[in-house]
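User: Predict the complex.
Assistant: Input components as received:
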Amino acid sequence: MPGKTLIAYASKGGATSKSASIIAEVLKTDYGHDVDVVDLHENKRPDISGYDNVVIGSGIRIGMWYGRAKRFLGTDFTGKKVAVFLSSMRAGDPKQYEEARAKYIDRVLSKKMKTAPVAAEAFGGWYKKKGEITDNNHEPDKVRAWAVELGRTLSS
Ligand SMILES: Cc1cc2nc3c(=O)[nH]c(=O)nc-3n(C[C@H](O)[C@H](O)[C@H](O)COP(=O)(O)O)c2cc1C
């Protein structure tokens, strides 16, 4: 049976928001999920009852998760499948990916999450100056591939 999935994200520059849209599209189109996408800067504590799955996304600035997403990670997700993704320039640089993953994913999730996620991934991001993207290592193809894999995990 297709799942009901909430994607809750915090984004300041737009990369995490873009990834959330890609993931939503894959889960809807390829897996028939009923998906809601919520911006945590508009709704800091979305109601998770009624969802089978929750996907949480955040951007990284000065080595930290955005506050809204970090707080949301501490929610009690008992009985739900949870997945996590983030956007970070370091994660998009192959030379810094492993370090970014250890610092921004492994360390943060082990401290903050009560429920172990079924999947967690770090993607690249972008820098903007005066509203224009000036440096971009966002990885839409990697996001899409991860979402396909995630859809399989959530449907099993
Ligand atoms: C002020 C500032 C600080 C940043 N600090 C980091 C950092 O510590 N590590 C990193 O990997 N990327 C850093 N970045 C890059 C962001 O991770 C990148 O802009 C990403 O796209 C943020 O996600 P968002 O676009 O969804 O807000 C920084 C960007 C800005 C503007």
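The mean pLDDT is 96.
Let me know if you want any component modeled separately.
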